[in-house]
Structures are given as structure tokens and as C-alpha cells.
From TrEMBL:
<protein>
    <recommendedName>
        <fullName>Immunity protein Imm1</fullName>
    </recommendedName>
</protein>
<dbReference type="InterPro" id="IPR025680">
    <property type="entry name" value="DddI"/>
</dbReference>
<dbReference type="Pfam" id="PF14430">
    <property type="entry name" value="Imm1"/>
</dbReference>
Length: 135
């Protein structure tokens, strides 16, 4: 298991939240879902990537719709989650108040989003619980 740094609140830019256990990650995701749509994306990065290079999972949530989406980024590539086609005309979430567009077919259930984040905590690698498409 690895530790993850989390960024979704203004204070996190200087001092990110840290999740090192399943319980800490669950609490962090619960906090994200209470933040409101202007902060509906958390960037989870491996706290000490070592020689594995940069790895981050962007976790987007829409608690009202019980859906979300993912972006996985490493030092060479980036991928969006591939799920069902959203009912929304445009699929976007917000990171620090800025819109981030997603492909309309990137939508996943919140249960899948949470499970993928837990897998990322355990492995530090792109989660296998989601299908992926190139950025």
C-alpha cells in the first residue's frame, strides 16, 4: 500500500491531505462529495513515487447523480475512464472552480470510482477496475 496526497481544497495546494489507509481514503472521498460542484475533482498523487515516476488519479464526483469519472496520468500518458454515456449534454466537473471536460462516455458509478481510488491507494498504478480510453 502507498500513501496518496490529495488536492481539492484551497489549503491543499500548500499542504495536501494525505490518505494512507482505506479508512482515510474513504473519509477523504466523503469530504470531496460534500464540497459542492465547484470542487468536484480531487487529484490523488502517489506521495513518494520513487523511480516509478509521477502517477496521479483525478477523481471526479457528482453525488446527486451517483456518478463520477476518472483520469489517470503517469509520466508518459493520460487516460480517461470509459463507462456509460452521460445523460448530460456536456460532461464536465470542476477542479478548484475551473471546468474540466470529460468524454461523454467517461461516466462511472460512484461505487466504481471509489473502488478504483482504493485500488490506486493499494497499488499506486492505473486501476484495473475501470476501462480506459486515451486522453
Amino acid at each position: 500500500m502507498t500513501s496518496l496526497k490529495a488536492y481539492f481544497r484551497p489549503g491543499h495546494r500548500d499542504e495536501p491531505a494525505v490518505a494512507s489507509t482505506d479508512a482515510e481514503l474513504d473519509a477523504l472521498l466523503d469530504e470531496l462529495m460534500r464540497e459542492g460542484f465547484d470542487r468536484s475533482i480531487a487529484v490523488l498523487s502517489v506521495a513518494e513515487p520513487g523511480d516509478g515516476g509521477y502517477r496521479a488519479l483525478h477523481v471526479a464526483v457528482d453525488p446527486e447523480g451517483d456518478v463520477g469519472a476518472l483520469i489517470y496520468i503517469d509520466s508518459t500518458d493520460a487516460w480517461y475512464s470509459k463507462g456509460t454515456t452521460s445523460e448530460r449534454e456536456e460532461l464536465f466537473y470542476c477542479y478548484y472552480g475551473e471546468d474540466r471536460d470529460f468524454p461523454r462516455d467517461a461516466e462511472l458509478t460512484l461505487a466504481t470510482v471509489r473502488a478504483a481510488a482504493a485500488e490506486f491507494l493499494h497499488t499506486g498504478l492505473r486501476p484495473t477496475l475501470a476501462d480506459w480510453q486515451p486522453w
